[in-house]
Amino acid sequence: MPYQAVVTPFDNRIALKQIKQSHEKITRFSTTSGTNGTIPRIITLGGDHTVTLPALRAVHAQFGKVAVLHFDSHLDTWDPETLASNASSYATINHGTFLHIAHEEGLLLDGVNIHAGIRTPIFSFGDIRHDRRCGFEIVHVNQIDRIGAAGITNKLKDRIGNQKVYVTVDIDVLDPAFAPATYPDNMLFGADYRGTPEIGGWTTRELIQILKGLQGINIVGGDVVEVAPPFDTQAELTGIAAAGIVELLVELMVKRPIKD
What we know:
Largest sheet: 6 strands, parallel
CATH topology: Arginase, Chain A
Shape: globular
Number of strands: 8
Strand order of the largest sheet: 1-8-5-2-3-4
CATH class: Alpha Beta
Radius of gyration: 17 Å
Low-confidence stretches: 186-195
Number of domains: 1
Oligomer: single chain
Strand content: 5-15%
């Protein structure tokens, strides 16, 4: 059932509460409307990657702590205190810190979370140490050259095991040649820093093969984010790729329902 959350553009703290409330509203409606004994799950479409945080809060309220499978070119576990110690409470919640916040709030399982497709610039070795403290392992983008898509899938499944997992896909995990319309605005520190698209990403075909290989994992929710239609090509390459990824996530959920 498609549902559009009403979200304020003026305060991200309020917006995150509104998104969480929307998740809870959909879950309550689905539960009372009858779902053949299965627990309803939600796929969120964004927008700023920060929308994963309220989704994880809503998932935690229903399922408890979960693993996170994070497809992205960036880590998104940066500690806002390290990035900018004088940042406001508004600026510290953003698309580069939401996984750090999720860890600090106790939403994530330890030792089973994993990033896939990473090719971000690393500011310091402290970034990696902190990422590990948040419970993540990293699959770098160029590992696919050595072990192929099947090898990447095996690493992801070995890490996650049979844990309940939330799958979040930042469209910039794809190379800009295949997904040019990703948000170019990085609002860290309350300023406008351009340049979150990263060259050297996976092809759409490679990502499709990796996702198809995940059949059998225990998905409790997911999202596809950072799609920016105003920046897309006339052929809508990014939108087509994002729609295909959503379809694959739905397929993975349908093939493994979660019973009450």
